[in-house]
Amino acid sequence: MDVVSPELNSLLPDEIMDTEAIEDVPQSQPESTTSQSEPSDDTSIPMETDTPMASENLGLCSDATSTEHTRALTTSTATDSPLSISPGSQLPISISSTSSPILTLKPTLATSTATTKTTDSVTGTSVTTSGLQKLTAPFTISAANHQIILNKVASSQATEAAKSAGTPPQVIKQEGQKLLVTAIGKSGQPIVLQLPHTGNKPGISQTAADTKSPAPQFKVVTIGGRSDLKPVVGSVGNQVTTLQAQQLKTVQIAKKTPASSAAPIKFIITKTVNSKTLSPQTSVPPVIAGRVLTQSSPVIPPRTINLSEPHNTSIQSLPGKKIAISPLKTPSKVTVVSVASPTSNASQKSVALPVNVALGQQILTVQQSTSASPVKVATSQSAAQNIKPVQSVAVGGVGGSQFKTIIPLATQPNVQQIQVPGSRFHYVRLVTATTASSTGQPSGPSTSSIQTAKPMVVSTGAVRMSVPIVPPQTMKQVAPKPLTSAAQVVTTTQTQQRLIMPATPLPQIQPNFTNLPPGTVLAPAPGGGNVGYAVVPAQYVTQLQQSPFVTLASSSSFPASAGIQTQARLPLNGLSAAETTSRPRKPCNCTKSQCLKLYCDCFANGEFCNNCNCNNCFNNLEHETERLKAIKTCLDRNPEAFKPKIGKGKEGEADRRHSKGCNCKRSGCLKNYCECYEAKIMCSSICKCIGCKNFEESPERKTLMHLADAAEVRVQQQTAAKTKLSSQISDLLMRTTPVVSSGGGRLPYTFVTKEVLEATCECLLEQAKKAEQTHQPRAEAERMILEEFGHCLMRIISSAGKAKADCASINC
DNA sequence: GAGTTTGAAACT
DNA sequence: CAGTTTCAAACTC
């Protein structure tokens, strides 16, 4: 079964946690394409943002008073009811906390016949649709005309803005769009609500994308607390949510709440927008990006909130899944790779696949829960259509469980990179497995795809980041390394699928997401043994992305592959990727640090040791636990330990400078001991060096530069000379290569024997003597010699040709 | 290649 | 935060 459709995954990174988009989206035109700012430098990215809980456009209304207002909204029929959530499976929405926000969803569709039942409950609002899920969160969802009104009662922990003034209830109009609402609350149970695409309605402006493609648009709203964020598991019937790949605009409204405290509420609203436009991004400090990967067929009756299941998709295996989330040392690429979870009878079971991105916890989580009980889910027709050729990645699981990740081979790969500016980490989004995926065959024609990278905003608890998604074309292949360490296999016996980021707090890496060290295996979320996180070096990811078909691991363990640890070519010390790519990193020689301290360049650069000369190296996947610990230690000591020391200049390399400055005392900053000099930058005011000569006007520096340039020129010349000589030799060998063939072939060089050469030289000398005796001028003498040389050559050639002819005749 | 120098990282 | 130690790379011979 498909846990997540490729399209959905592709969309996942987009605009996650875009809270600003909420405000920017006009109510009249919710699907209006608000251009999202391109990923910018880390400097430009607000590191921390307190997002108001409620935005006007979203109609999120946070009430300052933390009254627990509980309302249960129940939709009776799965088919016709606007809310098609089947009651059979009830998912408590964790939104309900001490401060329980009220979320009101009002589908305003006039044609909706479904009965919406709202009940006040002390415990919290529960929304039951189609018998699938029960939303226990204190919010009300009323569907009318595709409008969802989220009324949230501001929790005590709501953002300051929310606290300061209760925001009026905000209405989200999902005209002609599908609305996905995911609530993740204290209980860690996300709620996914999908409003089926109702088709064009009068008065509803359709986006260009809508007109072009029937693909429904979605808005995904995720509500949940970061700390308590947990995958929806469950008891609830399997719900496969596939996200319409085309256009998502994700708006996240999150509250930054203490992990320990209850009632963390975050809203992530993903809104479909024009596929090629980027929506403005707003990030809320606690970054929890939840996405419901839900795709519903256009056929589905309007006003229905569906937990859709992609048909034809079955997860074949993979109870446990290990996901390698690999950090990239380059400026922050994060790719979330979702691993499909195995489900039996996937086709008949609904799978709830909440996708959670908890940046605050530095984890992206894609979860899929499956239940034995078949759940009837509105199957999105488009989902099946969107199924594309996939790549399968098998990730080793514990207990013999196997994970397989299907990565679409199509232009819209399920593996995407997320770049976090200023961060070296690289995350991979794993693709969920589909039935066809196991075979690598697309179950159906793919109708929609996002082929172009889209910037993504990832906001962590303290950081908001624009995360550009690397276009599929740039994806590289990952050579999987054997995952033998327990840390890597975050095992789980269950069939859940979770990838991206852990919803639960990860103590291992508390520093903000951007500081996440390269290469880290994230431990499974507490309580949930099914989830595994692994942060691996960026090169893994890049390689993986290039790989058409990658098997990360099989049932028990990854096959040991020698080339797994290929070092990433990442920007180092401010150098561009191209620069670093051109020159391979030097192998380290660590002996005592186990390559788990910043002494080790590999470790410091977020790379696994590969082809190094180190002893007792722990900087590899086999020692991921230790490595993770070391990373944490380093980050505790210096949260920016893994950030590039050389910051980007504003206008080119001239402005590059060392982040901390050097402390040289004896080298004059003119040797590679000096980090500034090594990075080919001049010392700055922040340097504390003594006797610095590494400044612009320094004569010593200029001299060194000239010498260095001269040396470089010499090296280049030598290289060129060698190349030329080599080619000449090669050419000569080619010409003299004996060729015995009938007609037209080269003459055998064997005719140029020593005797022939001696004879030729004698002839030439004789000619020279003759010229000397006759007192010929020098020019004439040279001419005579050359002429004689020509005669000699002619005779040699003649003899060789004659011999060749004889040979050929004999052979015949 | 061995030994020395150097400065960042780690430690106290 | 400052001083000291540790460490591995850079450098010298």
UniProtKB/TrEMBL annotation:
Record's compositionally biased regions (Low complexity): 26-44
Keywords: Nucleus
GO biological process, one term: regulation of DNA-templated transcription
InterPro entries (UniProt xref): CRC, Lin-54_fam, Tesmin/TSO1-like_CXC
GO cellular component, as recorded: nucleus
Residues annotated as domain CRC: 584-697
Domain of life, per lineage: Eukaryota
Stored Pfam families: TCR (PF03638)
SMART domains: CXC
Region of interest: Disordered: 23-59, 68-87
Localization (cell): Nucleus
Compositionally skewed regions (Polar residues) per UniProt: 72-87
Chief site of localization: nucleus
Record's keyword annotation contains Nucleus: yes
Family designation: Belongs to the lin-54 family.
PANTHER family, per database record: PROTEIN LIN-54 HOMOLOG, TESMIN/TSO1-RELATED
The protein, known as: CRC domain-containing protein
Source species of the chain: Amphiprion ocellaris (Clown anemonefish)
